[in-house]
Design brief:
Blueprint: H1 2-43, E1 55-58, H2 59-62, E2 76-82, E3 85-86, E4 96-97, H3 98-110, E5 114-115, H4 118-127, E6 135-140, H5 145-158, E7 162-167, H6 181-189, E8 193-199, E9 203-208, E10 214-219, H7 220-226, E11 235-236, H8 253-275, E12 281-283, H9 296-309, E13 312-317, E14 321-323, E15 331-335, H10 342-353, E16 358-362, H11 364-367, E17 370-374, E18 376-380, E19 383-387, E20 393-398, E21 405-412, E22 419-426, E23 434-439, E24 442-446, E25 455-458, H12 459-462, H13 470-488, H14 492-505, E26 532-539, E27 542-547, E28 550-557, E29 565-571, E30 590-600, E31 607-609, H15 622-634
Parallel strand pairs: 2-6, 2-15, 3-4, 5-6, 6-7, 7-8, 8-12, 12-13, 13-15
Antiparallel strand pairs: 1-16, 2-14, 9-10, 9-11, 17-20, 18-19, 19-30, 20-29, 21-26, 21-30, 22-23, 22-29, 23-24, 24-25, 26-27, 27-28, 30-31
Helix pairs in contact: 1-15, 3-5, 3-10, 7-13, 8-9, 13-14
């Protein structure tokens, strides 16, 4: 009896051991597979899920009551330009990100725009051939290789063709940054690309800093090191005579003409050598000079040479419309910037052309919560992007009424130059309320009467105030100039001179803020995006306001409004042309309201456009713990 029991016990042990081994093998296989999948996901991310198409609305409802110009069909085209496209938005970058580019192209497609070729443009001007009703030329400037890689799938999806401009000097680039002769031929073989030219090289002359100090002539790398210390007091190398620190000519008319002719000739030689032809499309740097240069004699030489070498020239920037009654060598393009929403771009196009266009609406359910009074809004990604009318306003009115007591929170992410606002206790027209707004890096609380602000705050002071004196900023610019020349200039004598100047400058002591010197206040940049957390708490006739989690107004007494409604506002700064070198002005403004939440102190929440907070409890098993340990080892 004992033997049989022992045999059965041993048999059970064997079965259990085999079962445990199987379980361990399966568990180990699971761990290995999980680790492999994790590693592969890090190397090559999984494909993104299909994007949900945005609802759209026509400009006929958005622009009702606003004048627009009409143009005869087939006698004009629009031109849109991009300095490049990056995969993801980069803080401080002025280049459009891929998602924004996709949205812009999708909206243009929905609006009925179709791309044309350079030859179509030339035939229209030369032979009077008609263009499609909504003809469009898309241009990528500066010849950045990655831009072509990122945007081609979108061009294919929209069946659009684009021009990639290059600098002839960069066609032999070995660093992988620029389009080379080989990659240019590959693009042209795809049928989605044509080639254009920005010129022979990107270089700058007659550079003066914001304090009138002469920085001389610089190549691209040198210029990028010092551009933070400049205003607009510099030229592209083809736009003027070479000048000295007193702005006097350093060359004769004959020398200037030979210098400019050499560049065009060299440019043409390189293109013929690498492509077998010279591109038809040319972009003369810089734009908006009134002619083809800052000096009449230089302008005349540029005009002569470009007409010898190229079939067309983009001479202006800031508007997209080109008509047949202008010169094919005096064309204009609109450069899309990183802060342009798709609706911003479409509003600019509508303003220039008078075309019926489409605007993005986004989340239709969220849109139902608001009444549009002016401008256009897109509801997506927990944001409301409110785009103003040209040289005007954008206004949204919340359909629900506010209670006398409420608590509002939001992140304001529009650009510093312009106005984004929240008005409370307004009437049905969004007027007569108390307004909290950010305007040109100031915060204001405004009364319904429009009299003096109830409260104002300089946001530079709020952020800690000026960091340096005027004298310190000027000295830093001179030092940066010397360092740029030492690092990047090819002229040995110039590098030696810069080294001596640098050693001297580093011995100087200039007045600081601690000495009572005048603070340096940087000019606002039209591209500079804001990101402010705002909270407003209203208790009857008292306001408390927090900015970036700091209490700035405590129980401020406010006047009565005309009602119990809430309005969001966007408004253009009318004199913003002083803030940008390339975009001389922008007559449209995007106010961005992210994670807007309005709580009711009594009763349910009035409105929320934010992710709800969730209490998540995770139960981690043994295998999960093992996987996490190994993942940490992988990391």
């Amino acid at each position: 009896m004992d033997d049989r029991w022992l045999i059965r016990k041993n048999r059970l042990k064997v079965i259990r051991t085999v079962f445990e081994i199987i379980v361990m093998v399966l568990a180990l296989s699971w761990v290995i597979k999980s680790l492999w999948d994790y590693k592969q996901a890090r190397v090559q991310p999984s494909p993104m899920p299909p994007e949900k198409e945005s609802a759209m609305i026509s400009s006929e409802s958005i622009t009702e009551g606003y004048d627009s110009m009409g143009h005869a069909s087939g006698t004009h085209f629009i031109a849109l330009a991009y300095n490049g496209v990056v995969a993801k938005a980069v803080e401080g970058s002025k280049i459009v990100n891929l998602q924004a580019f996709k949205e812009q192209m999708q909206t243009l497609k929905a609006s009925g725009y179709q791309t044309i070729s350079q030859e179509d443009v030339i035939r229209a001007y030369r032979d009077g051939e008609n263009l499609p009703e909504k003809a469009m030329l898309i241009i990528f400037e500066d010849g950045i290789y990655d831009s072509a890689i990122w945007v081609q799938p979108t061009l294919e999806a929209c069946n659009y063709k684009a021009t990639m401009c290059t600098y002839a000097e960069n066609l032999s680039d070995t660093q992988g940054l620029y389009i080379t002769a080989k990659s240019a031929r590959e693009l042209m073989d795809s049928t989605y690309w044509e080639m254009g030219s920005n010129g022979y090289r990107l270089s700058y002359i007659n550079i003066f800093d914001r304090y009138e100090n002469y920085f001389g002539h610089m190549n691209t790398a040198e210029f990028l090191k010092v551009h933070h210390y400049l205003r607009r007091d510099y030229n592209h190398y083809l736009m003027d005579f070479l000048r000295d620190e007193n702005r006097l000519r350093q060359e004769s008319v004959e020398e200037m003409e030979k210098r400019i002719e050499w560049d065009y000739t060299k440019m043409a030689e390189l293109y013929r050598q690498d492509f077998g032809f010279v591109p038809s499309l040319y972009i003369l740097m810089h734009s908006n000079t009134g002619a083809y240069g800052n000096d009449p004699l230089v302008s005349r030489k540029n005009e002569e040479m470009m007409q010898k070498v190229f079939g067309m020239n983009f001479n202006r920037q800031g508007t997209c419309l080109n008509q047949m009654d202008s010169s094919v060598y005096d064309l204009s393009r609109l450069q899309s910037r990183q802060y342009f929403s798709a609706n911003h771009l479409m509003m600019r196009i509508w303003d220039d052309t008078g075309h019926s266009v489409m605007f993005r609406l986004g989340d239709e359910e969220q849109a139902k919560a608001w009444k549009r009074l002016q401008g256009v809004a897109e509801y997506s990604d927990h944001r409301i992007i409110l785009t103003s009318m040209p040289y005007g306003k954008g206004t949204l009115l919340l359909e629900k009424e506010l209670s006398p007591d409420f608590d509002l929170s939001v992140r304001l992410q529009g650009n510093q130059v312009g106005q984004q606002s929240i008005s409370m206790k307004t009437d049905e027209n969004g007027e007569g309320g108390v307004t909290v707004c950010l305007h040109n890096n100031m915060l204001y609380i405004l009364a319904p009467s429009g009299a003096e602000p109830l409260f104002e705050l300089d946001l530079m002071d709020f952020d800690g105030g000026p960091a340096e004196s005027v004298e310190e900023n000027e000295l830093a610019g001179k030092i940066a100039c010397c360092e740029a020349i030492i690092e990047h200039d090819e002229d040995e004598a110039r590098r030696a001179e810069a080294q001596a100047s640098l050693e001297y400058l580093r011995t100087l002591r200039v007045p600081t803020l601690a000495d009572g010197a005048q603070p340096y206040i940087p000019e606002l940049d039209i591209d500079e995006q804001d990101d402010r957390k705002l909270r407003i708490q209203c208790a009857g006739s008292r306001f408390s306001v927090w900015l970036d989690d700091r209490l700035i107004v405590d129980h401020l007494k406010i006047p009565e409004g005309r009602g119990n409604r809430l309005a969001l506002g966007a408004e253009v700064t009318m004199d913003n042309e002083r803030f940008s070198q390339t975009n001389l002005s922008d007559d449209v403004y995007d106010a961005i309201f992210r994670d807007l939440r309005i709580g009711n102190n009594i009763g349910p929440e009035i409105y929320a456009y934010a992710e709800p907070l969730k209490d998540v409890v995770t139960h981690v098993g043994f295998v999960d713990r093992v996987i996490r340990i190994f993942r940490n080892l992988f990391d």
